[in-house]
Specification:
The structure holds two protein chains of two kinds.
Chain A: H1 2-10, H2 12-22, H3 30-38, E1 43-47, E2 54-57, E3 59-64, E4 68-73, E5 87-90, E6 93-96, E7 103-105, H4 110-135, H5 144-164, H6 172-190, H7 201-218, H8 221-228, H9 235-281, H10 284-324
Antiparallel strand pairs in A: 1-2, 3-4, 3-7, 5-6
Helix pairs in contact in A: 2-3, 3-9, 4-6, 5-6, 5-10, 6-10, 7-9, 7-10, 9-10
Chain B: H1 8-141, H2 147-160
Classes of the chains: A mainly alpha, B mainly alpha.
Chain lengths: ~325, ~160
């Protein structure tokens, strides 16, 4: 309920932005609202609209080809309504008023801030757990340890060990980190007013790229032989298989990237769409249907948050496992 | 399109945040935690192994004890049996010996009795002979003309000589 109410509170916030300029009657645009909610932003918006909106400004960091490195608060843009220092926010991006200037935008946006928050939460949790492991050596886990130990052993015994094989220990830290990082980011995204970091293509691209790097750098002779000169296949077929296999190297992490992005973003879109019905029909009666339905969807998204973290980790382990496997199974490549 | 265009800033920051997180957690969380878990698992499996071993040893000891007890019992039975046969044999032997001894004694006694008897008979014979001779001598010495005197004499002598 809290979740839904919060969404309700933040709704009118933006549909007005464009309509305000024309001064006409405000019309609710569900597509624009949803796009706004799943997109990145330069400030952490809580509620309200235009100049009245309550939000936390975040630092803007720009590297300009003409002006060099610039750091200033996003509050200078006044929620995107004003330009500052020759820059303006247009469709959630900073653009230069001067056409000849080129900028590289590495601002701490809402998604970056959310990611940092996730990283801090994870660090606090696991560094404190690590300390308690040092404190009670050889004793049964207690408190937070008992909560997270099954998760850690789950990643180790159900994901890393069966898919990678005896060399899993080397990759376990990566798999654990990626699992908890995705999960916590997914959950933060479900909190009303939260960012959609793990549903952002740049986030999933980075993680998928890291999995790809792990795969490429841990690939053994047999793995590369399998790709470039597939054994057990007639010669003409090998020539055909070569590009297929090379493309295959990249399609696997590409699928990882798209899967996480699409699942998380779709979850957000579904919940927002259901709640949009209330404003589209301008009826409280619709809320009676929409709100319970959104609550159910939110609960499902909580499950999806864990599921997608699991799937990303599992598939990463599988790809690494294929790269380090001692004996390739020629029958089951795809 | 904006949705599926990765922005430079986010790529940059997610890489940096993730790399930092990975580094810090690997060094200060995952390694100690996974190490401690493995240590604990090893400890538990060792303890279980030891318990199993102790249990096995115990049951082995128990069966050993039982075998020992059985053996002791058998030995005792054997000793008892042996003792019984020895005792029986000894008894039989002793009986036999006693029997033969007594037989011998009886035989001896019998022999002696016969000897004694023979000696007595012989002595009696001698005595009768000498007595007869003496009587004859006396008769010779006395008047044996009348029948009555002869009779008196015989009676007198008979009175004198005592028979056992």
């Amino acid at each position: 309920m809290l979740l839904s109410l919060s969404f309700l509170a933040s709704f009118p916030s933006f549909s007005s932005n464009e309509d305000n300029s024309t001064g006409k009657e405000q019309k609710f645009n569900a597509a624009e609202m949803i796009k706004h909610h799943i997109a990145d932003a330069y400030d952490w918006h809580f509620f309200g609209e235009g100049h009245a909106s309550v939000s936390m400004p975040l630092p803007v960091i720009l590297y300009s080809t003409t002006k060099g490195l610039q750091i200033f608060s996003s509050s200078n843009f006044h929620h995107g309504t004003e330009s500052y220092n020759g820059y303006r926010i247009d469709h959630n991006h900073i653009i230069c008023l001067d056409e000849s200037e080129k900028i590289y935008d590495i601002s701490i946006t809402k998604n970056v801030a959310s990611m940092m928050l996730a990283a801090i939460i994870i660090m606090i949790i696991f560094l404190s757990i690590s300390a308690s492991y040092k404190k009670n050596v050889g004793q049964a886990p207690s408190g937070m340890q008992s909560v997270f130990e099954p998760l850690i052993t789950f990643v180790r015994d159900e994901i890393a060990s069966p898919n990678i094989g005896p060399k899993y220990a080397k990759y376990l830290p990566y798999l654990l980190t990626v699992f908890f990082f995705i999960w916590v980011n997914n959950l933060l995204g479900l909190i009303p007013t939260g960012a959609n970091a793990s549903g952002n293509i740049a986030f999933t691209l980075t993680l998928a790229a890291i999995t790809l790097l792990f795969t490429l750098f841990s690939g053994n002779k047999e793995y590369w032989a399998h790709i470039f000169w597939t054994p057990g296949v007639p010669l003409p077929l090998r020539v055909i298989m070569l590009p297929v296999e090379v493309i295959g190297i990249f399609t696997k992490p590409f699928a990882l990237m798209i899967r996480l992005f699409a699942n998380i973003t779709a979850g957000h879109i579904i919940i927002l769409s259901i709640l949009s019905f209330i404003f589209m029909f301008k009826s409280f009666a619709v809320a009676g249907v929409s709100v319970p339905f959104a609550v159910v969807m939110s609960l499902m998204e909580v499950f999806v948050a864990a599921l997608q973290a699991y799937i990303f980790t599992l598939l990463s382990a599988l790809f690494i496992g294929q790269a380090v496997a001692e004996h390739e199974h020629h029958d089951d490549h795809h | 399109m904006e949705l599926i265009t990765p922005s430079l800033g986010l790529l940059f920051w997610s890489a940096i945040i993730f790399a930092t997180l990975l580094f810090i957690l690997t060094k200060f969380a995952w390694k100690p935690i996974v190490g401690a878990l493995e240590e604990r698992e090893k400890f538990i499996s060792d303890a279980l192994d030891q318990a199993n071993k102790a249990k096995e040893e115990m049951s082995k000891l128990k069966s050993d004890n039982e075998a020992l007890l059985l053996q002791a019992r058998q030995e005792r039975d054997k000793i008892l049996k042996d003792a019984q046969t020895v005792a029986a044999a000894t008894m039989a032997e002793a009986k036999e010996k006693a029997q033969s001894e007594s037989d011998k004694m009886v035989a001896n006694a019998r022999l002696q009795i016969i000897n004694e008897k023979n000696a007595a008979i012989l002595e009696l014979k001698n005595l009768v002979a000498t007595t007869s001779l003496e009587i004859a001598e006396q008769i010779m010495k006395k008047d044996l003309s009348s029948e009555s005197s002869q009779k008196d004499l015989i009676d007198a002598y008979l009175k004198e000589s005592k028979f056992n």
